[in-house]
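Let us work through a complete example step by step.
Step 1: write down the sequence.
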Amino acid sequence: QVQLVESGGGLVQAGGSLRLSCAASGSIVRINYMGWYRQAPGKERELVATITSGGSTNYADSVKGRFTISRDNAKNTVYLQMNSLKPEDTAVYCCKANIVQAYSLKDYWGQGTQVTVSS
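Step 2: predict the structure and record it as tokens.
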């Protein structure tokens, strides 16, 4: 079985920074892409950023220039550095990983971590 555990959420004032982490553990052969998604109250879940095993990244337009996604393949961990936070960034942030196991390939999700940005 595989688990994704996020950490680093919290309450921050507008203009501040937070760094999220998501560590994958379990029976893992390889992790392909990893990503961060978020869901605000009353809104649909949206993609924030993704990163491939080779380090190629993709960002939502709303976070470009403010957020940076990175990963440590040796630790099976993905990070999201969030700078210049805005109240509209308030949401539950979840990580997702496309994981290769011995006999399967599937997406796994973390439980989510709350990010609240006050004005």
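Step 3: interpret the result. The longest strand covers residues 30-39.
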